[in-house]
Amino acid sequence: MSFFERLKTEASVEWRAYTEHPFTNGLADGSLPEAAFRHYLVQDYLFLIEFARAYALAVYKSPRLADMREAAAGLSAILDVEMNLHVKLCADWGLSPADLEQAPPAAEMLAYTRYVLDAGMRGDLLALKVALAPCVIGYAEIATRLASRPDADAATNAYRVWISACRRFRALRRIFTLAPAMLTPPPQLSYHRHRRRRRTGSQ
Fold this sequence. Notes:
By secondary structure, the chain is mainly α. It has ten helices and no strands. The protein has helices at about 5-10, 10-20, 20-30, 35-60, 65-90, 95-100, 105-120, 125-145, 160-175, 190-200. The two termini are about 35 Å apart.
């Protein structure tokens, strides 16, 4: 069992409640109220801004050059690809870039993104990736489940274009992984703990 599978097993009830939320079922069968979807579109855009900050933090927290490049690729994918795609999809729902950027952030969005950034600031790269995992991996699971629903691609489903786009987002978010090499902490001090101890002169 992989590291992340162990984490999911420990929180299986919460994980299913998240990945099988009624909101996602409403997307799949087209029954989701339009107002709820518009609210999601706006908050997801604001979330992407904070998501990009987390990837930027991952560059700083990376102990190896390969990790830095991985995080930088993820940051570029968010800023240069995913956000542009999001804006184009929102335009189909009558939402302009100004509508998205000037909207007030929801408390739920702020709570999660502040938690992620706080976990990343306080911990190492693995701590940041674990905090991001519900979004990165959960989003992929939701996209896979939606794509498997026959009613998701029905001509009468107003959300079919968004569901199709989710598959592309899923591919982008695979860039950010829980690398196996990070799962077993090395016997020596971590890079950032080592730097702190050198500054303080402690052993």
